[in-house]
Amino acid sequence: MSADSSSTAKAVPSSSSSSSSTQRKFIKRPDDKAMKEEVESLKKEIKKLDLTNNELNAQIQKLQIDQKVMDERNKLQAELKVLISKQSSAKNERNNINDQIKSIDASMKKKIAEIQQQTSKNSFKTVGEIDARIDSLDKAIDAGNLKLADERRYVKEMSALRKLRKDFGSIEKIQTLIDQDKEKIAELKKKLQGTHNKEVQAQFETIQKKLDEINESNKSVISKRNKIYDQRSEIKKQKDAKYDEIRKLRSDFDAKFENFKKQMEQEKLKRDEEYKAQQAERKQAKLKQRAEQELADASIPAFTEEINSIHNLLSYFDPSYVKPATKTASSTNGSSAIPSTTKNQARVIEFPEDLVIVKKEQDDFFTGTKKKGKAAKKHHKKNFTVAPEIIVALSDLTIPYPLKEEDVAETIKTLKETLEALQEKQEEQTKVNIERAQAKIAKFKEEDFEDDEEDEEDQE
């Protein structure tokens, strides 16, 4: 957006009724000059930091350790990485085995608790103990030395023991699963011992010791390099901070510029709305003025101009004719002595349909020419002329003009008949004109005036 956008558009000309429109708001374009200067200043500071960083890189290049020592160090570090990877794999494997042992042990404890719950109700722990008790009771009964009550009690106990023995069958299955879990745990623990590779640990410690010796022998150089590395890291942080400042400056300016564009758009919309309101106001005023003019023109008595013209013509042809007083003032030039139609172009005269105009055939009219001597005087007495403006006025009324003096009486008669006909129809035709004007006003109240206004603006 150019700098010209910083000012608002000029106020749109309005009608007198809208001259008190609100003052145009001045919207200032955000100045990017200060932002650019700050950005350039930060870029210069970044260049200085780059120079310092280059100097530190040069110092690091000077603080080099012997290449053989570096090769040995790199080799040991590579071996150490391999051992670390092995130890990491072994550790993951141990963790996996321990997880399996924990899972199996939890399942086994659950099974043991289930057996304990079932065996806690009696004194027998195994099926063998139950069988031994059954055999003992059976032998006592077979001996025949028992009382009848004891024998019945033993038989009842044997029946209960046999039922208990069936329940102990499921316990034996659980016990078998417990034994299997114990074997699995033992195998996993044995496998776990295999993951503790003492040889790998010994190699790791040996390599680490050699690296420590190399680092110790080059401690001063490494210390200086590390110090320079720290300085270089600090420079990087400073550069990053300055780049962040540049981004923030640009972001803030972009936000201000977006707000500026938004305000400009709002001001434009406001101007457009004001312009539309002014146009609507002008249109209404114009419509009112046009309606008033149409009604005023229609309210003038019909045939006023024609009637005034006839009165003037009668006065012209009959000097003794006295024009009667008119009821309404005429808007035409009827007060003049002789009507003039030279200013009217293509004037259309409305006559009632039942109006009959007496029109006589016109003979050729020739004005006399000047002759010498007595002949000229003789012909001058017989010449009859009519003023051109009178001929035009009669032509407008479609009344033939007199070709000779004897025709004047017929012309006067025709004028009076025409006057009478017009006066009879005047009131009726005036009402028709007013009704037509009112219908026309109603019509262009409904229509949009855009086309008319565009034509008038083009003409202006």
From TrEMBL:
Coiled-coil region list: 171-217, 405-447
Q: Which domain of life is it from?
A: Eukaryota
Organism classification, top ranks?
Eukaryota, Fungi, Dikarya, Ascomycota, Saccharomycotina
Q: Name one GO biological process term.
A: intracellular mRNA localization
Annotated Gene Ontology MF terms?
mRNA binding
Would you tell me the protein name for this molecule? BFR1
> What is the protein's species of origin?
Candida metapsilosis
Q: Name one GO cellular component term.
A: ribonucleoprotein complex
Q: Where is the composition biased (Low complexity)?
A: 1-22
Q: Which UniProt keywords apply?
A: Coiled coil
Entry-linked PANTHER family: LEBERCILIN DOMAIN-CONTAINING PROTEIN, NUCLEAR SEGREGATION PROTEIN BFR1
**Chain residue ranges for the region called Disordered:** 1-34, 267-288
